[in-house]
Amino acid sequence: MEAQNVEILTNQETIELLYRALQKGDTSTVAKVVASDVEWWFHGPHHCQHMMRLLTGEPPSQVSFRFEPSSVQVVVPGHDCVIAEGWEGSKVYWVHVWKLKDGVVTELREYFNTWLTVTDYSLGAIGWDMGRCTVWESVPRDVARGSLPSLLLAI
Known about the structure:
Layout: H1 11-24, H2 27-33, E1 34-43, H3 50-55, E2 71-74, E3 81-88, E4 92-101, E5 104-112, E6 115-120, E7 128-129, E8 132-137, E9 150-154
Parallel strand pairs: 1-5, 6-9
Antiparallel strand pairs: 2-3, 3-4, 4-5, 6-8, 7-8
Helix pairs in contact: 1-2
């Protein structure tokens, strides 16, 4: 029996692979890294639910929005949470919070035109602010000289 060459990816590498696969329309790779029963939460205008349309198999050519993350990072070592954010021109800002289990995406929280602060209540006293520890914040940028709503996500 020949040994299989199986590459083990970090959670961050898995999410980076997912974005590349989505851009190419590689549904086989998407199906391998996203659970069929992925839990999805969305905050933003209804017409901006682009990622779910891609994850459910709508061809990239049918989705006019392209996700090109400006950053993809693990926010707390040891947690299965990866955050990606990006801009579409100067008017659209998005954040994806991915949770993975055994290298497979099990949850996606998607935010459009929303500033996000992510906290971890289990980290202890480092960086505490009223009992919480901020582990990630949206990167500020002038969005059409307007303001965006802010949300706090506890992990």
